[in-house]
Amino acid sequence: MMRLAQCIDAANAEMNVQLVAFVFMPEHVHLLTYPLDEQPNLGLYLARIKQPFSRQIRVELEQHNPKLLERLTVRERPGKTCFRFWQEGAGFDRNIFSREALEASLNYLHMNPVKRGLCERAIDWKWSSARYHEEAPLHRQHDDLPHIHGFPSGAFD
User: Fold this and answer.
1) What CATH number is given for 2-148 in this structure?
2) Which residue from 32, 43, 77, 123 lies 20 to 30 Å from 17 (Cα-Cα)?
3) The pLDDT of residue 139
4) Domain map (residue ranges) of the chain
5) What is the longest distance spanned by two Cα atoms in the chain?
């Protein structure tokens, strides 16, 4: 998890993206981010997370679990194989335009481990930002909530 978090941090810094919330699940990741640039390249942002992490995993598997490495090596076309750690495709993304949608998204991603039976309360899942948001819930934060989370002032007006 630490390596993935480091890749996310590096991508956030490089691509000028603010992390609002996250949940690391056993087989997938939820990220709620706010791009600070007017024309963000989300495909490149995801590549900046996925590629370095995949390289790290591949090295680890080469050294310690070649059978799993073999299972994760797929045939792209005749004569060409590649290591595929991440599921194909860009994932699921959507834009958030209201405070209500932001709160619903935070609740959805933080409750993911609870719904899966991995913990009883969202704040119990240690690979999540739920504890941070529990300590400073959106409705108790300053009136300039959008600014605090990297959203420009007036983003929810």
Assistant:
1) 3.30.70.1290
2) 123
3) 52
4) 2-148
5) 58
